[in-house]
Write a structure and sequence with these properties.
The structure is a homodimer of 324-residue chains. The first copy, chain A, has 324 residues and is of the alpha/beta class. In chain A, 43% of the residues lie in helices and 16% in strands. Chain A is elongated. The relative contact order of chain A is 0.12. Chains A and B meet through helix 4, helix 5, strand 2, helix 6 and helix 10 of A and helix 4, helix 5, strand 2, helix 6 and helix 10 of B.
Chain lengths: 324, 324
């Protein structure tokens, strides 16, 4: 493959001139520009992005860390971020952290040593590792520090909306299946749901799941549902967990929504495919992804933006697992 | 951040010595090794992976191109490959091609200019672009050329197994919903299914979908199902499309499996969550992902391997959408 030396030789100019042209880092006459570009095309030269990243300090690559792309929500989120990043000329370096602080910390090292232009981290589990980062970072869902912007859905209000809907549908003996305590987003949903219940003087039975998404692991957790006494409404912390709850209840012969009404959270593609289809709370995935990448690119370009938390609106999506 | 110059100065050795130590490219005495390592720890130095990739020609990064990680099959596949790659010390640079030849070709340029160590491409749509690649490539599902190894499930035999199962369950008026003609994997499933039908002298009605996975787009295609005459068995080219077919039939009041039996393909996590749960053909995702990454790393390490196609066994997973 041709390199910068070959280009310079063929065009009859110095290597420094070719470098200035390629990286747009100084004056090159129009005449020489045309000459260099012609040689580049003739030799089918592909600029070495690695070398360029070192010289211009801009690798046009963004590191995206998510817990797991097998989780339908983070998978749709990653797709959206990748799409918008491409439109803005950036490529995505995707890393699965598996909610494992050691893995996340290792990836953070890898991304730094690869000199990525910026990092988006979803649901961070090793916040202290971000204290000395000199690369722009946007956090998704979890608050890392006052120096790092967090973008998130309004999970708290989403939890309130879920309660209000089940209440309006006539539920008075409700259960809330909550996610692992260490997830801020699902904790916020729980707080919203429980606060709204308190306003109506309703007591809510709680069950905690130890995983957010792994069908196999969800099925291990599902055994705890056997403890459930009588109930007429269930709010589950995400759609995929709600899907496993529906499956469990159906096996026990419980009719949904006639006997028990169920709500999920996320509005991922799975809701429409379930039977009955799942009433849920929408997270605006497109808007979240777009906003997150836009903020990061502003940081990369040294634009002046407010370091604060950005909450995006959640809303009810009514389907068949709840009444009227 | 400390650089290699700082390390050399502090350790009282030359830059070339530090470079030999870091990249393991030549002799460094044990005494000097200890000295350099101590300084590295003191200065909290993170080797620049970009620079190292240029000097050692091994970036420890693998480019993985998939059509779309929102497709449950490719998403599970990407997770598996990422996991095994990590175990072997590699990071994954994930790219969505959206089955778009231009996007795939652009990403191929990006991956080359980033000097990735190797590339895995699933369901390539611009095969000609791989003719001049000097980086190891493994193709998943589609045959690119005789110089590039293809790893795939035995889709043809999977199609045969699907027919045999529906036949054994008593179906005699079958429909096959096939994927877009341009997908080799789903074409192979179709051929297998139709060849098995020919052996039994059964005529199969065909419907072609124009997308493999996008719930919205699948729903546009589903209208073509209105053309369906009477049938007692349907083989759908993948699980997620089968899920939309089930939803469509249920809305029309068709009882599954009593009136119509249905089979999907993939055995993705969605099968268990559907009601009734979906009988399908298993693709060995774990084995496929592991084998693909192992082959690629052997190529990267210049090991001698046969350039040929590797087919992995498919098998029936019986669930509730078929009888007996």
């Amino acid at each position: 493959m041709a390199n910068i030396r070959d280009i310079a030789k063929e065009a009859g100019v110095g290597i420094a001139t070719v470098s200035r042209y390629l990286n747009d880092t100084g004056y090159v006459s129009d005449e020489v520009k045309v000459k260099i570009q012609k040689v580049i095309e003739e030799l089918n030269y592909k600029p070495n992005a690695l070398a360029r990243a070192i010289f211009t300090k801009n690798s046009k690559t963004i590191g995206l860390m998510v817990p797991n792309i097998s989780n339908p929500f983070f998978n749709q989120m990653a797709s959206v971020i990748e799409e918008y990043a491409n439109e803005m000329g950036y490529n995505i370096f995707l890393c699965n952290t598996d909610d494992n602080p050691e893995k996340e910390s290792k990836y953070l090292d890898v991304l730094q040593s690869h000199r990525v232009a910026g990092i988006i981290v979803a649901r961070s589990k090793c916040k202290e590792a971000y204290s000395n980062i000199d690369i722009p970072v946007i956090s998704f869902e979890s608050h890392i520090s006052d120096k790092i912007i967090t973008v998130s859905s309004d999970n708290y209000n989403g939890g309130k909306i879920a309660f209000d809907h089940l209440y309006q549908c006539g539920c008075r003996k409700m259960i809330h299946i909550k996610g692992p305590t260490c997830f801020e987003a699902t904790e916020d949903r729980s707080r919203g749901f429980l606060d709204a219940a308190k306003d109506k003087n309703l007591k809510i039975d709680l069950i905690e799941f130890e995983t957010d998404f792994q069908v196999k692991m969800l099925e291990e957790n599902i055994e705890s549902l056997n403890k459930i006494g009588e109930c007429d409404g269930i709010f589950v912390f995400n759609d995929i967990a709600a899907a496993t709850v529906i499956k469990f209840l159906r096996k026990k012969g419980v009719r949904i929504p006639e006997e028990v009404q169920i709500m999920g959270f996320d509005n991922s593609f799975i809701c429409e495919l379930l039977h009955p289809s799942l009433t849920t709370i929408n997270q605006p995935i497109q808007a979240l992804g777009k906003y997150t990448i836009e903020l990061l690119i502003k940081l990369i370009n040294d634009e002046d933006i407010e370091i604060e938390d950005y909450l995006m609106e959640t809303k009810l999506i009514k389907r068949e697992t709840t009444l009227s």
